Structures are given as C-alpha cells and as structure tokens.
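INTERNAL AUDIT FORM
Audit reference: QA-55
Scope: verify that the stored structure record matches its stored sequence.
Auditor: D.O.
Record contents follow.
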Amino acid sequence: MLRRTGALAATAALTVGLSACASDDGVLRTPDGSVISTTVTRIAEVNIVNAGRDFAKTCLAPTAPDAGKSDVKRIVVTDPALLDALCALGLGAQVKAVVAPAGSVPAYLGPQLGAVPTLGDTPDAAAVKKAAPELVLSSPATERRLTALRDGGALGAARTAVVDPTTGWQDSFRAVAAAVDRTAAAQTRLAEFDAEAQRVGRVMDAGHTQVSLVRFTPDAQLIEGTSSFGAQVMTQVGVARPAAQRTPKAVVANDDNYKDADADLIYVSFQGEKGTARGTDVLMSDRWLDMGAPTWKRVLNVDDDVWYSGSGLAAAWLVLNDLKDSLNSSSAG
C-alpha cells in the first residue's frame, strides 16, 4: 500500500514561503502594490530543475537565408509542432498566424510565439488573408487545414510546404529549414548543439551516472525507455540508463517492476494537474522513499512539456541546459 497522507499539503508547504496581504484579485503584493513572485521550487521534497526559467530566452538568434535566396517575411503555420524549428532558426518574428486552437502553442517557446494569433481549427479565410502569408508550413496531420485554406482562397500566391514532425526531430528541423531556405544555417545549428552535447557529456562524466526517467500521467506511473524526446537528448549527451530502461517503450510501474525506476539519479515529471497529484502521492509514499535514489535525495523534477511534448532544437537546448544544471545535483537541503 502506498502512503498518501497529506501529500498535497506537503507540496504547498514546500513552495517558496512568501507572505503579504492579498489584494482583491488574489495576487500577492508588497505594501506598495508590487506583485510578489511565488514560483514553486519544490514538489514533495523534490527540487524542480530550472524553476522559474525565462522562456523569453528559448528562441535562438535570427539566421540568414542560404546564399542567393531571398528571405521569407511572413509565415503561417498549421501545426504548432513545427514552431520549435522556426524558434531555433530565430524566425519567430516572421510567424504571423497559427492555424490551430487557442492554447496550442507550447509555452516553452516563449512569449513571442505565444502572442501569435491562433486562428482555430477551421479559420475564417479573411483572418488568413490578413496574415498575408508568403509561406504556409503544414504537416500530414494538419493537411486538412491547409486544404481548407486553399479551397477558401485564403492563400493567394503563398507557397506551401508540408513537413512531417514525427520523422525525428533533427530530420524535421532540416525539412523546416529547407522550406525557409536555411539549409546551411540548420546544419550549423545542429553541429553546434551536437558539439555542446558531447562536451557536456565529457565534462560531467555522464556515462558513469545511471539516470532513470519516471513520468506521472493522470492514469499511470510510467518508467520511461529511450524513445521519449528527453531520453533522446540524454543519449546524445552519453548519459547512462538503467538496464531495464534501455528499450524504446515506456512501461507501467507495477509490483513486479517497481524497482526498475531506481538509479543513481531519477528525473520525474508530471503530466498536467492530475499527473502532479498522482506523482505527489507516490513521491511521499513509503514504497518510493525506500528506494536508493530517494534515500540519497537524488530525485529531481523536470518540465514535462519540454522533456516529453517538446520535439525540436529549441526544446533540445532546454533539456541540455537541465542536464548541465542538475546531473550532479540533488534535492538535499
């Protein structure tokens, strides 16, 4: 039986302790009215890696088009999964609309892309015409949106490119780069990332630290394999994994395999509020606390949206920075 005594209360008690009078809107403020930051830094005695990270710094510096190519100034995207590549190429300012439901732009891409108008699943042609795209980036999963735009006469003279973001993040990054005439820049950026990943692996002696990945979803506690996005970046860095986690697929933790979650260090993540509630209960349970890494305070919390929903060079840099900051860290103190 898992012990589930006051786990959520423990979570609240372990946030940054700040006191001030609350205004009518419920926001904590100083006596002069300034907003007080209440960034959560721990959950159930586990430190959050890069708590309060500034996503305004996610996107990289702008890149130049390939020699002899003119630059694309106005881009419309029908699949939010393609935005990461544009962010990593420094083209966020050129994205004028996203043909997708509100809230579908990943938060880790920062405020610039978060402020781009989202036009819904079936946008009004006039809204797309207002965006005046020179290029429309689409994917096989969202080609119906592209078809609707074309049939509605919203595209005008805009050229289109279809990129499959499920082919592997480096391949899809190259494909997006080719669509915006930045093949050379893409190769440079991938080479820079690979060089830094290898350097981090050497400096941190990553091959001698076995790292476990455990993800809490609303429905299960998952022991992750090698196929998730964060796990792929760890492989590129050379981080070792426990023997039971060297196959691609995640498995559900049960009575027979529970200790397969243990390692020198465990990175946990929570999918949404319900995943957080489940994970908080487990992290406070006797069964979990009896394992090696929890005993040594070698359990850390990483951003689920970045490590599991992210898929691109911008997200890869965030994962790499997490590894730099935490591979030799703990939740002690």
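Auditor finding: record pair retrieved intact. The two ends are 28 Å apart (CA to CA).
Action required: none
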